[in-house]
């Protein structure tokens, strides 16, 4: 039997799997976890045991075992706790949305947490229950733990590991409801808790699994320009007012890399920063993007790379309202950073000016409309093409970072030659040269000294 009066081979009362399954189906706040591992497999197994379906019980136990045995867990937590708390940390629910963290929602969350903990505490009895129901000679093995995983933040989820450790040691999960709410406030929920970079496409936010985030220390040159960008962003992540930023200058000067490098820092308020790339072709969907970000605890940079408009393109009119001047206020947790090779963003023609033969009755108004778009960026940062001295300084800095064994004079000669034959003087050209030299020197070292 598996009812309340049943006992295990140890003489202890066996769990009432029917009651556990019913309680799990009655989760009020965290019901979404029933669609995810491991609660999905746990509930299915508890139901199979309560209905005494031996075949289903064996199948569900196999599924649960496969989920647990392949889970890397944090120190001090079993795989079942690790997976449950991880799913809890990323869940979208009334508590994570901050709709109400007092009263009924808080009470329901406390009850849900205790219900989940009760099932997890009963889980070690599952092998014996399956063995008795299926008339096995011995109970199947139970994965006591999983592969140990250090508590790191390499994937941006170190806070989840800390949360797992806290739950593993807590005698009463219900008492952790405020800690769970604080986690949601600090780190968000759903995809915003798991990822820091996104792309807007097909009307939705798509997470970027492996974002290109260069370390700030790897960006050589333009220190004053990047300091201004970082200062504005520091105000933003701390919850203060910040400006939209336009980074403009010649190609290859590191404008895009400067923006992406802002995600490198994860300390303190910077952990709240998220980057959402919006392609120019979808600028008309800016209001839809903002609608998904409003009221979130994170701070979002909407990033538009290589922004400029040709004659006849009018997407900038949609973007102007989001930047400033629309009836709907831009939320405090959203700013727009854009890069461009053109200071005023919209191509201007001499025919835009008031002149005899102009077809535009109010030509000056046309010019003002185009110029007013760039004015909506409160900060404009210029990335000029480096002169030869600045270009050589960038090359030398990158070569030093890579530890290239090359004489300074030879490096400078190669840099001048590279700029002449390839993409001119720019930070991008400097990096491309250093990439080439690293490979060239590596092959030489691999080949060894020439024969005597």
Short summary of the structure?
Helix content is 45%, strand content 10%. The chain is of the alpha/beta class and 452 residues long.
Q: Give the strand tally.
A: 9
CATH superfamily of the largest domain, by name, is P-loop containing nucleotide triphosphate hydrolases
Kindly identify the CATH topology of the largest domain.
Rossmann fold
Number of structurally distinct domains: 3
The helix count comes to 17
Strand content: 5-15%
CATH class of the largest domain: Alpha Beta
Q: Main β-sheet, in a few words?
A: 7 strands, mixed
> What is the rounded Rg?
29 Å
Chain oligomer state: single chain
Give the class from helix and strand content and strand pairing: alpha/beta
Taken from the alpha-carbon principal axes, the silhouette is: globular
Percent of residues in helices: 40-55%
Mean pLDDT: 83
Low-confidence stretches: 1-12, 149-156, 348-356
Please provide the ordered H/E string of secondary-structure elements: HHHEHHHEHHHEEHEHEHEHEHEHHH
Topology readout:
Layout: H1 17-25, H2 39-50, H3 54-69, E1 72-74, H4 79-89, H5 103-122, H6 126-134, E2 147-149, H7 158-169, H8 177-187, H9 191-194, E3 197-201, E4 204-207, H10 223-237, E5 245-249, H11 255-260, E6 273-277, H12 286-293, E7 299-304, H13 315-323, E8 334-340, H14 363-375, E9 379-383, H15 388-402, H16 408-421, H17 427-447
Parallel strand pairs: 1-2, 3-6, 5-8, 5-9, 6-7, 7-8
Antiparallel strand pairs: 3-4
């Amino acid at each position: 039997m598996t009812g309340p009066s049943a006992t295990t081979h140890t003489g202890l009362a066996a769990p009432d799997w029917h009651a556990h399954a019913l309680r799990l189906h009655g989760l009020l706040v965290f019901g979404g976890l029933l669609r995810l591992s491991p609660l999905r497999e746990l509930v299915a197994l508890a139901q199979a045991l309560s209905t005494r379906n031996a075949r289903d019980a064996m199948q569900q136990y196999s599924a649960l075992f496969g989920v647990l045995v392949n889970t890397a867990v944090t120190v001090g937590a079993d795989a079942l706790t690790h997976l449950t708390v991880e799913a809890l940390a990323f869940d979208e629910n009334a508590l994570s949305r901050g709709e109400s963290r007092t009263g009924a929602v808080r009470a329901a969350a406390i009850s849900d947490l205790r219900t989940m903990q009760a099932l997890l505490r009963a889980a070690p009895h599952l092998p014996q229950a399956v063995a008795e129901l299926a008339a096995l000679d011995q109970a199947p093995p139970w994965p006591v733990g999983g592969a140990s995983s250090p508590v790191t933040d390499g994937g941006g989820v170190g806070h989840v590991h800390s949360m797992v450790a806290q739950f593993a040691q807590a005698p009463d999960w219900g008492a952790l409801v405020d800690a769970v709410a604080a986690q949601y406030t600090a780190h968000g929920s759903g995809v915003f808790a798991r990822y820091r970079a996104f792309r807007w496409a097909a009307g939705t936010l798509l997470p970027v699994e492996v974002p290109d985030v260069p370390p700030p220390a790897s960006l050589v040159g333009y220190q004053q320009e990047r300091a201004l960008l970082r200062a504005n962003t520091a105000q933003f992540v701390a919850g203060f007012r910040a400006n939209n930023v336009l980074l403009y200058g010649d190609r290859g000067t590191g404008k895009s890399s400067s923006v992406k490098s802002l995600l490198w820092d994860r300390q303190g308020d910077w952990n709240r920063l998220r980057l959402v790339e919006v392609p120019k072709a979808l600028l008309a969907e800016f209001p839809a993007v903002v609608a998904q970000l409003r009221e979130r605890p994170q701070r979002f940079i909407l990033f538009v790379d290589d922004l400029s408009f040709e004659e006849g393109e009018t997407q900038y009119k949609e973007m102007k309202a989001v930047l400033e001047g629309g009836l709907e206020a831009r939320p405090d947790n959203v700013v727009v950073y854009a890069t461009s090779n053109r200071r005023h963003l919209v191509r201007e023609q001499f025919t835009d000016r008031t002149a005899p033969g102009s077809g535009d009755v109010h030509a000056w108004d046309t010019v003002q409309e185009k110029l007013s778009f760039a004015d909506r960026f409160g900060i404009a940062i210029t990335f000029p093409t480096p002169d030869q001295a600045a270009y050589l300084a960038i090359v030398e800095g990158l070569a030093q970072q890579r530890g290239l064994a090359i004489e300074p004079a030879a490096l400078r000669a190669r840099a001048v030659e590279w700029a002449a034959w390839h993409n001119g003087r720019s930070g991008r050209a400097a990096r491309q040269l250093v990439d080439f030299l690293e490979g060239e020197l590596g092959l030489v070292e691999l080949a060894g000294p020439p024969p005597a």
